[in-house]
Write a structure and sequence with these properties.
By secondary structure, this protein is an alpha+beta fold. 32% of the residues lie in helices and 23% in strands. It is built from three helices and four strands, in the order E-H-E-H-E-E-H. It starts with 5 loop residues before the first strand and ends with a helix.
Length: 84
């Protein structure tokens, strides 16, 4: 099973709602109001992308903007999925 979620850290709901009106997102949005998840994962660059396995272990991390549908990233995802 694969699940894709977005996590928004350290911003209030009103600001996020304004953003979502301009850029509709069709993914679950988890709110990290106090940035505790960002602290736990030592996230210091936004955006940051992670592939996390079913046990919560980070299997792939990328700091900065990322094109998930690039050939290289699709190959990385397929490789990781084949190991599940």
């Amino acid at each position: 099973m694969v699940a894709i979620v977005t996590v928004k850290a350290g911003e209030d709901r009103a600001r996020i709602d304004r953003f979502l009106q301009q850029v509709p997102v069709e993914l679950p949005l988890l709110m990290d109001y106090d940035a505790s998840i960002a602290k736990d994962w030592m996230i210091y660059v936004y955006p940051s992308s992670y592939l996390v396995d079913h046990q919560g272990k980070i299997r792939y991390a990328y700091l900065g903007a990322l094109e998930w549908d690039s050939t290289e990233n699709i190959e990385i995802i397929q490789s990781l999925l084949s190991r599940l």
